[in-house]
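Holo model, S-adenosylmethionine. Inputs:
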Amino acid sequence: MPPPPESTAYDLDTNELASQYEATSGKAQLKTGIVLLSELSINPGACVLDIGCGTGLLAAHIASLAAPHGRVVGIDPLTKRIDLARKKISSDLKDTLVFENGVAQDLSRFGNESFDVAVMNSVMPWLTPGEQLEALREVFRILKPGGRLGVAGGSGDHLNPFFEIRKRILSKDPYQTYYPDNTIGAPKRITSDALTSLSKEAGFSSSKIRFDSPALVVQTREALLQMVTSSAFGNYMGKLPSEMQLAAQDEMMHEFEKYRRGKHFEIALTTLIAVAYK
Ligand SMILES: C[S@@+](CC[C@H](N)C(=O)[O-])C[C@H]1O[C@@H](n2cnc3c(N)ncnc32)[C@H](O)[C@@H]1O
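Output:
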């Protein structure tokens, strides 16, 4: 039996990674998040919890839908990203949008049935299966009857080229000593079956799931590397000692070459877009 997946590390983020995420996530996570919002009918006046809000780009967009009388709370365990998120609270959103440190598994500061909608965009893969169930139970508790949970992100039913490359390289010498089970720091992407059964177990009455296949287009291999490393807030290189990281990153960049299409790079990713109903 493979060992259980390790919990994600939250102490590896840096100001540089947080800023890189802010600069690059518009091409990937924000796009997927906006597709997810189109499934959630967020109207003015809605109360929305954005769980794992990162640097707050999607939460600010949600706040523009829920304003002026709605309320949007973004929570995230990474302080550096919450600091960047707070900069998005423009004067017209100051009564609508708030950001706090927090994790999906513990929403105890929020009362029962206090939100219309909860959003988890590119967050589920960072939770172990046990944490995913705890999170879904908490979300079920804080949603009003008829409330919706939107979940989106990399699909566990499909291969993700970035994490296949990572697995191939980190499983070789000299890196593999630091990467013994292929799971350290890797996102635990959820499958549609697992999400359906976990949401049922958490109490949701029904759910719908579909897949989307956006192409990720960037101009340089360096930008690709920045996207994956900043999305993983320091977890992408596993437990590799810092002196080995540059060599491993060079090998990854070499593999990215196969996605070159003329002057740009293009990678097809499959995302899962799901809504669960209370
Ligand atoms: C790829 S980013 C997505 C950020 C944002 N949702 C977006 O759409 O840009 C993943 C985020 O999930 C957060 N995260 C990881 N584990 C979490 C947990 N247990 N509870 C809440 N958020 C978590 C990370 O801190 C990180 O900001």
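The mean pLDDT is 93. The longest helix spans residues 242-256.
Archived with the compound record.
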